[in-house]
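Risk register update: the risk of archive-format incompatibility is retired. Evidence:
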Amino acid sequence: MSRARGEPGVDYWKLLRPKQWVKNVFIFAPLIYSRNFFNPSLLGLAFAAFIFFSLLSSGVYVFNDICDRERDRSHPLKCRRPVASGRVSVRVAFAYAAFLCLLSLLGSFVIRPALGMVAFCYFFLVVFYSLYLKKQVIIDVMSIAAGFILRVVAGAVAVDVEVSPWLLICTGFLALFLALGKRRHELHLLEVTASEHRPSLENYSFAFIDQMVAVAASGTILSYSLYTFLAPTSQGLMVTIPFVVYALLRYLHIVYHQNLGGEPEEILLHDRPFQVAVVLWLVTSLLVLYFGSIPGVPVFAAIFSFCPGA
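Archived output:
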């Protein structure tokens, strides 16, 4: 309690979970793939959407901390959170969450009414997840995937561009892959007390999660590959497939051999090989989309253009 009096700003900052904001970079996907990344006005709109979605996600994280405060106290890491530890009262945390959510929803509606509607859908989904969906096996991880899909849709409506269904499918599989890795980490970390912290974990096992991880990883690679083959912007994007495959396999290595995966953003921020793969994917994608200057891409794309259905 003394820490709450001495460093209240630190606890309020931790309640925001700023590291989680990296998940909202999915908002920029439609901007990049529509070849508008270097359009200052549209980039500004996408960045504004990113800010408001980050504040909105922080608001619902605070609400989730309030709902989970009792269970978090039995978790070796989450017990240190401001609400679970008692350093921030439930009443103050609830007011904080309400302010963040209201501000972000109003800001989203100001940018574009359609963005405001998507933000409201995201808010409703996450609140419903905190209250009910996270207790349901399989539905809990599918709800997380739906949240990432809504982020991509938000990015599309923010800059008023169409988004490919393949991009939405790929995003859903990728988010499902990450969510399952998180569940596996929780099973490993909590062992026999896992169901006490999260009821849905009682219906999960390592074998069951491993099978679903294989399905999600395969779905991610397949949907991304099909997206690059069928992309209306540039078939040259197929040269980025190896980076995606490596990043997924590297993530699996971290989950299975280092028993991590509970915080995907930590892997992105600290694992150097994974960072290199992401940077190479991003740079190559930008070069193909905006400059078409990757050697061999025209020939490679031409070969696949003669394939049936290409």
